[in-house]
Sequence to fold (121 residues):
Amino acid sequence: MSQPQTQIIEELFASLGRMSWESFVKNRLPLLNLPLDVLEVLRSGQIEYTKAKAIARVEDEETRKQLLEDAIAYNLSLSEIKRQIQEIDFLSFFLSFFLSFFLSFFLSFAFLLFTFALFGH
Fold:
């Protein structure tokens, strides 16, 4: 942007008095990149942008959708949403770890059975 355009934009934001141009670019503009389900709820005014940003971190679409519905239905605070996200992350890690462990164990056991069947004893 040219210098006069930048100045006009900065003056406009200053006259609105809500936030600076820099704050808008840093905090609000990235909201356009939220997942569509979260963006729709945010645009309709059903949830605050801080809550929307937190919920958008949930990668699994179904889990995110459920958290979004719960946040609206129970008017969850941002700290409650963050706590639920931590629980989701923990359960996801826990499940992933144990699936990896059991898959590894199963493959090792299958290899031993195969080796025993092949070479006897």
